[in-house]
Design brief:
Layout: E1 5-11, H1 15-26, E2 30-37, H2 44-57, E3 64-66, H3 80-83, H4 105-115, E4 120-124, H5 129-137, E5 147-151, H6 167-171, H7 173-180, E6 186-189, H8 202-209, H9 214-221, H10 224-233, H11 242-251, E7 256-266, E8 277-280, H12 292-295, E9 302-308, H13 310-321
Parallel strand pairs: 1-2, 1-4, 2-3, 4-5, 5-6, 6-9
Antiparallel strand pairs: 7-8, 7-9
Length: about 325
């Protein structure tokens, strides 16, 4: 029996998702058993194409499953403005040689959760529509996952698509709330974890190009649109890689340098705050008079990661590109 860790990725594959998939597919300790696709950064079918192409570059034939093609309630709102029309920096990569599997992603998630019960690590890189739908269809899977690491939310900080919300949660907040309150062993890596010393600077981008191989070139080239959006539009100091940073913590938990277990829920109705991840950092719910009884059902539910070892995550990225 293999002693590798078993992982399933749920993604809306665009440029940074592709790098995260590459990291998992290349990591020597990971057995990637499936990649499930959801509508988000790009359309469902474009995400399928992007995931298949990425895996093909890695020489990995892991099954790919197409899932939900729209949020539970909200309209489809893709992130072409950030990732390009094809989600991959409009680099016009060739079509992959194989197609996705015929099984629906939701059914694949349920099947794999039971098949690898207690072993399966789930990493979510997009809106949580597939996961919420799977939980609705079979609530028992909540206890089957060993670990669920989500690139989701913004913990007590500004968002990246509105002042209050991060894109993956904002795209389908109803799904996120279902997942957040499901009782799974969840970890949240908000978009802000990829800031500060986790940002890949222009000199570090050149260092990656100097690895001089197809994977390194792909990892940076497909993010060219995202880099321009970050630097020219948002004024960031370099390339922000939200999904690869979340994947880095999934692959090597010790890279998280600050974290805490809190109650986290999602704002569904706020005019200015829809999709906000409300993190009870100080356990104020239950400490206020009249809320004591409610605290029983509002216990901490998510391990929230606040910071990552910047050097460590970039070292891991390079290792996976070699």
């Amino acid at each position: 029996m293999s002693d590798k860790r078993v992982m399933l990725i749920d993604t809306d594959t665009a440029s940074d998702d592709a790098v995260a998939i590459l990291m998992a597919a290349r990591h020597p300790d990971i057995e990637l058993v499936g990649v499930t696709l959801v509508s988000g950064n790009v359309s469902l079918q474009q995400g399928v194409i992007n995931a298949l192409y990425t895996l093909e570059l890695c020489g990995n034939s892991v099954p790919v499953f197409a899932g939900c093609d729209k949020p539970l309630i909200q309209p489809r709102l893709h992130a072409h403005w950030y990732h390009g029309n094809d989600g991959m920096g409009d680099k016009n990569y060739p079509l992959p040689h194989r197609k996705e599997d015929s099984e629906h992603a939701v059914d694949a998630i349920i099947r794999l959760a039971h098949q690898y019960s207690g072993q399966l690590e789930l990493v979510t890189l997009g809106p949580l529509t597939n996961i919420a739908t799977a939980l609705a269809k079979d609530p028992s899977i909540a206890s089957k996952f060993k670990r669920v690491v989500m690139m989701a939310g913004a913990a007590c900080t500004v968002g990246n698509v509105t002042p209050a919300a991060e894109y993956n949660v904002w795209c389908d907040p109803e799904a996120a709330q279902v997942v957040f309150t499901s009782g799974m062993a969840m970890e949240m890596v908000g978009w802000e974890v990829a800031l500060q010393d986790a940002i890949i600077s222009s000199s570090e981008i050149q260092d990656i190009y100097q690895l001089d191989n197809e994977l390194a070139k792909f990892a940076m080239d497909c993010n060219i649109h995202a880099l321009r959006a970050s630097v020219d539009w948002l004024g960031d100091a370099g390339l922000i890689q939200n999904d690869p940073v979340a994947m880095a913590i999934a692959l090597e938990p010790s890279l998280s340098t600050a974290n805490g277990l809190y109650r986290v829920e999602v704002e569904l109705h706020g005019k200015l705050t829809r999709g906000m991840t409300v993190v009870d950092q100080r356990s104020v719910v239950g400490s206020i008079a009249g809320f004591t009884d409610e605290w029983v059902v509002r216990k901490p539910n998510i391990l929230v990661h606040h910071k990552i070892d910047g050097r460590g995550w970039k070292r891991l990225l390079k290792d996976c590109l070699l």
